[in-house]
Amino acid sequence: MSYAEKLLEGKYNYLKDGAVYSEEEFHVEKEDKSQGNYTFHSEILSRLRTGEFLKIYVDYELTHQFIPLRVCIKRRLGDKSSTETYTWDIKSKNLSYEFEDTNGKRHFHEQVINSKTAISTPAFLTSMIMVNHRKMDPVHKTPYQVISSSNLWDYEGPFYENEMFLELQSLDQVEIELAGNKLNATHCKMFHVASKDTNLVQGDDIYLSKHFYIPYKANFQNNVSIEIESLKTFEDQFSKR
Hints:
Elements: E1 4-16, E2 19-31, E3 38-47, E4 53-62, E5 68-77, E6 80-89, E7 94-100, E8 106-112, E9 117-119, E10 142-148, E11 160-168, E12 174-178, E13 181-191, E14 204-208, E15 215-219, E16 224-233
Parallel strand pairs: 9-10
Antiparallel strand pairs: 1-2, 1-16, 2-3, 3-4, 4-5, 5-6, 6-7, 7-8, 10-11, 11-13, 12-13, 13-14, 14-15, 15-16
């Protein structure tokens, strides 16, 4: 029997025009055995204009090579709830998907996925997880295959594959300041479409930590940003990063 060892824990703030509208608390665990699996856990809490709270729970399990094994996303809002679960069979390359809608009805879909892929979740913690199994090209945009779905409370259809691109902005780490701490980060830009005509200023700026490439910060369109408020490693303190 193996046990999970906590490696990291922390918190993100989601901001619109500088005001916090959502929070995400997270931790990362690893099985305490050789080549143990990793699990990334997030809890997201958002207060809506109606005064209700949207709660999202994400559990993302990966192999020691950062290949997705199982991803579970649970949403709760008042009387509404939904759960979607992805289960990846590494040998057969079959990805099974189950969505339980707000009425309790279950929907299923299976598909063989031959390429290395990541699974999209609402958690900022897992947004750059694919960089662990494919490093960014130092010169060119690096493509990543991502599995997504449009299902929130009701079933809209099966999951689908799309492509995103990351472009490294500097070979050297850059210094940023967050929560009163100066941090060294890898600066890249994220594009959902890349071509020769892509305007770099349209890309979203992402600043990655050295801890499994979890992001420190991102700047999106319309004055939306996400910033890490705290990060504790169980080897070093955030203030030393």
